[in-house]
Amino acid sequence: MPTSQLAFRSATDADIPGLVELIESAYRGDASRAGWTTEADLLAGQRTDPDGVAAVVRNETGRLMIAERDGELVACCQLEHRGDHVYFGMFAVRPTLQGGGLGKVIMAEAERTAQAAWGAREMHMTVIRQRAELIAWYERRGYRRTGQLTPFPYGDERSGIPQRADLEFELLVKRLG
C-alpha cells in the first residue's frame, strides 16, 4: 500500500463508532484472526467501547490519531503526553491490511508527532507480556523491554475476559530523536 495515499488527523467524536469497530476487529473475535495482532486466544469479550474511545478522543493531554486512505479509516493509535514521554496505545490496523508495512508507517508518524507536538524524548507503551511475536515486532522498531510489569485488570470486563490466569503488561520504551 503506497504511503502517499495515507492521511493522518486527530479523531473527533464523529469518528468514535468507526474507531470502536476498527479496534475490536483488530484484537477480538474471528475478524481479528485475519491479521496477526489478534488477542482472541488470550482474551474474549470487548477490547474497548464507545465510552473508552471517547475518553481518549476528548483527552486534552493527547489525541487519538487516525490514518485514512481514500477517506476510509485504516488505522489508529493513542498518543498521550505524560511529561517527558508520550504513551502510545490503542494501536489498531485493519486486519486485512496487516503485514504490508502499514503499522511501521503509523509508528513512525506517531513518533514524529510525539516529538513535534510535545518535544517528547521517549515513547512508552504497555504490551501483554505473553504476546511474544508482537513484542518482537516492537523490538525491531527500536523499543526495548524494561521488565517492569503491571497486573492485568482481572474482573474489569471493559478490558476483556481473560482466557488464562497469568496475564500481565510489560512496559516497552523507545528513545526518540
Q: What do these coordinates show?
A:
- The chain has 177 residues and is an alpha+beta fold.
- Helix content is 28%, strand content 34%.
- It has 5 helices and 9 strands, in the order βααβαβββαβαβββ.
- It has helices at residues 16-27, 29-32, 50-57, 102-118, 132-140, and strands at residues 6-10, 43-44, 62-69, 72-82, 85-93, 122-128, 144-151, 161-162, 168-175.
- The strands form 2 sheets. Strands 1-3-4-5-6-9-7 form a 7-stranded mixed β-sheet. Strands 2-8 form a two-stranded antiparallel ribbon.
- Strand 4 and strand 5 (85-93) form a beta hairpin.
- It is globular.
- The model has no long low-confidence stretch (mean pLDDT 91).
Short recap of the structure:
By secondary structure, the protein is of the alpha+beta class.
What's the total helix number?
Answer: 5
Instruction: State mean pLDDT (0 to 100 scale).
Output: 91
- What shape does the CA trace take? globular
Q: How are the strands ordered across the major sheet? A: 1-3-4-5-6-9-7
Please trace the helix and strand order, writing H or E for each element. EHHEHEEEHEHEEE
Structural class estimated from helices and strands: alpha+beta
Strand content: 25-35%
Distance between the termini: 27 Å
